[in-house]
Every structure is written in structure tokens, then in C-alpha cells.
Amino acid sequence: MFRGFYTVASGMIAQQRRTELLTNNMANANTPGYKADQSVIRSFPDMLMARMGSKSLPVQDPLSMKKLSTVGGISTGVYMQETLPHFEQGQLLETELPTDIAMLQNTVPINADGNPGAVLYRLENPVAGEYYTRNGNFTLDADGYLTNPQGLYVLSDTGQRIQLQNDDFQVEADGRLLANNQEVARIGVSFSAAPESLLKEENGLFRTADGQNLASAYDTDGVAFSMQQGFLEGSTVDSAKTMTEMLTAYRAFEANQKILQAYDRSMEKAVNEIGRV
What we know:
It holds the Pfam family LlgE_F_G_D1. It comes from Paenisporosarcina cavernae. By secondary structure, this protein is α+β, with helices and mostly antiparallel strands. It has helices at 2-27, 239-274; strands spanning 37-43, 47-57, 63-74, 78-85, 92-94, 101-107, 118-124, 130-133, 139-140, 146-147, 170-171, 176-179, 182-186, 189-192, 199-200, 206-207, 215-216, 224-229, 231-233. 22% of the residues lie in helices and 34% in strands. The strands form eight sheets. The protein has a four-stranded antiparallel beta sheet, with no helix packed on it. A three-stranded antiparallel beta sheet has the order 11-12-13, with no helix packed on it. A two-stranded antiparallel ribbon has the order 1-4. It has two domains: 2-82 and 242-274, no CATH class; 91-233, no CATH class. The protein is elongated and about 105 Å long. The protein contains two helices and 19 strands.
């Protein structure tokens, strides 16, 4: 009986966390460059139940021997193992703003797990290392530096801040940034062979777990991408699919809740009625 409480409670917790994840995805359905999170729910190891009994041998002095009869397996609950961002290419949305730069990921190597890598913009991390993002919704600050919506500096391929006189500049497909037909810098782009291992921060930012910077995408074999000025990469959230999954998670939570209530009524009856006898 008590094991049933634990099993149902674990299911409710897993579905609650899945609902929170899907809600966050839905809230970022219109966030440029947002990569939708996916959840991985796994079950705890099953237990094999057996019934203990005894068997008497027909001898002169009866001999009793223990006997186990297999009943079957029993689940011990589920848990959310991890959440992984889905690094697929988002749809390009035209804004006609010169500071909006969309990245189009063409071809990238496939890692040992069968997953494709990902290319990301390089941003300065005020603490240590670098931040990475696919949100190309950039702007110029008061000093003319190219920054992201949170005010973090966009880095060049040499790791330097990019400073411009005004927003009258052009971005070539290969990432070169031109002002007055002169190359000012090349927008920094890094490549992650295992993007699922990146740590996700707020506002669509990523960083490495060990604090080491990712390799430059320009120097990595097999990586092909391009940039398009005046466009933004849309979110990878499928609103209709996410809403359906939210309803499914809610119904699963509700079903576990009904089972928990049934267990509670059974325990109440056992204490108040059977215990009275």
C-alpha cells in the first residue's frame, strides 16, 4: 500500500516538472533563436515480487522446506532524468533591421551519439569564459558596441568586442561585417560537437560545463553556415504540439491524483473501520 503512494507521487512529480518545461517552451514561442527543451522521463528499476510458502516432504519425519512462488514485477515509479534543448534550424523571419542577424545552419558534423552539432554566436561573459546564443536580435549601445538584448557584447572571431560608428553597415553571408565597404570585423561563431552537453542559462544563453571556450566554427572542418542581415531566426517551439503535450501531461497528473485519492480512502477505511474491529 505505502509503495503505491511512492509510485504515484513520483509520477505526479515527473508530470509536474514536464508541465513546467512545456509551459516555459510555450512562453518562448516567439523568442528569437529559442531552442525548445525536451524532457527524458525514465522509470526506476522494477522489482520482482515472490510469495513465500512452505512445502512438506512425505517422509517418516515430515520435513518442511521453504518455497518461493513468483508473483510478477512491480514498478517503483518514474523520474525526469534530464532536459535537452532541440538544436534544429528555426524559421527565418524578416525584420528589415540592420542589427538583426539570422544564422542559417547548413551542414554540421554528426557526433558519436548520432546527434548533429550546432553553431552559435559568441558573447562576452562578464564572469568568465563566454556565453553562446542563437538569438541574433542585436543592437548598438551608447558607445557603438554590438550587444545582445541583455547588454552582453557580441565578440568577433578574434574574441574582441565589435564597435561601429552607426547602424549603416552590411553583414556578408560569411560573417564579415562591412562599414563604408571596409571590413570592420568578422562576427564570432563557435561550434559545439555536443550541444546537448551545454548548460542552458536564462534568456536563451548557453555556456560550457567546464568553462572552456568552444572551438571557432570558421576553423572546423565540415561546418557550413551563413548569415542573413535583416532577419531573425524564429523559435523552434511548435505551439500546437506543445499545447497537446501540455494537456497530455495534465491528464497524466490528474490520473495519478485520482489513484492517490483512492489509496487515501483505502487507508482511511483500514484505520477507521477495520482497525475498530
